[in-house]
Design goal:
The chain is α+β, with helices and mostly antiparallel strands. The chain has six helices and nine strands.
Length: about 220
């Protein structure tokens, strides 16, 4: 227990564990507002944890290293043993007639097309807003290998376009995210750190603001 002198330097006010009894005696906040604040902070924690969980594969890919694995010609590739979330390079010829263009909500135009001679691997490249229908001039593509299922809802519109064009794809179809090496996923680290800070900050504030205060009555010295 510590003591603090008042302004007139005559009265000593005892502090129990650093808590001013007069402040502790003030009316507590309204229950509704208190409950709403706690609920909002808990929701922020839950949302941040969900974001961290969704970033696991991106973080794993970032820390996988920049060594590219060459898979050779796409027509000779056995897709049964392919490992996803890996940095690979594949050789193949793009099929311009099967190209699907789309634009992301946050900006950027992209083209998705199969490589000739097979239907199991698609290439996903930045189109820079071009919809001319011209094929990508490259025959070797390197990037992150994932599946349509791993891409989730963000690839659903592209999937429907392929199916409408009599080129059905499934959740097991592979997509090569061209020109996306592990180093390009540094943003996932920053986003994960930000989400973790939200979790820690809200947990600390919840503990500090809403824990019960216990005052022990002690004789004044």
């Amino acid at each position: 227990m510590t003591r603090v002198e008042t302004a007139d330097a005559k009265t000593l006010v005892p502090l129990v564990e650093g808590v001013d009894p007069e402040l502790a005696a003030l009316p507590a906040p309204a229950r509704g507002r208190r409950f709403a604040t706690m609920t909002l902070m808990a929701l922020v924690v839950a949302t941040s944890l969900a974001l961290l969980a969704s970033l696991r594969s991106d973080l794993a890919y970032f820390f996988a290293g920049d060594a590219v694995q060459s898979l050779g010609q796409v027509t000779e590739l056995d897709t049964a043993g392919l490992q996803t979330n890996a940095f690979v390079s594949i050789e193949g010829t793009p099929m311009a007639s099967r190209t699907v263009h789309y634009t992301r909500l946050l900006g950027g135009s992209y083209a998705v097309f199969p490589l000739a001679g097979q239907r199991r691997i698609l290439a996903h490249v930045a189109a820079n807003g071009s919809r001319s229908g011209r094929a990508d001039p490259r025959t070797t593509y390197s990037g992150r290998l994932v599946t349509v299922g791993e891409l989730g809802g963000r690839f659903s519109a592209v999937r429907r376009h392929f199916e409408a064009g009599d080129f059905p794809i499934s959740a097991e179809t592979y997509v090569l995210m061209v020109d996306e090496p592990p180093g390009s996923y540094l943003w996932s680290v920053g986003l994960a750190v930000l989400a973790l800070l939200f979790v820690l900050a809200n947990l600390l504030l919840l503990r500090r603001w809403f824990r019960p205060i216990r005052l022990e009555r002690r004789a004044s010295l």
